[in-house]
Amino acid sequence: MSETSADTTPGQVEVVLMKAGRTKIRYPAEVVADDGTVVTVRAPWAADGVRDFGFVRFEPGDVFTEHYWRDRWYAVKEVRTSTGVLKGWYCDVTRPAVRDGSTLTVEDLDLDLWCSADGRTILRLDEDEFAESGLAERDPEAASRALSALDELERLARGGDPLAPASALHDAP
Fold first, then answer.
1. 3-class SS at 138?
2. What is the pTM of this model?
């Protein structure tokens, strides 16, 4: 299956998040949609226990609806509590996603953006990790695309556009 063709097979995929050539995390997710460009999956919080960032807590019971693009350098994850209350959007800057049958692989490029549900808190995250990663020296084009993706996500968030593919992000350049 090519990375641009749709695999509309219902059911599960295993999301594999790579970082610096290693598997950071892998977890099962339900395929919600795959139109050939955007793969949308839903999964519960996959890590053990609570992760408190200070600006948001991810915890058991939280549900992530994750949007991965085959042609963009980011992924957008809508985060809700177990009762359906929207916490916000966690956006990962990544290389374009690759779906190969029942595996969805994404390479994390360290940069992230958080946008709270009310849009009042928009944070660029991990820019220090990105600088220390050496990507700019190893792959200047990828580093440039990663920084552009973070800028685009921030522009969309600050513009008041909800961070979901059904709206502004789906139509973004």
1. helix
2. 0.88
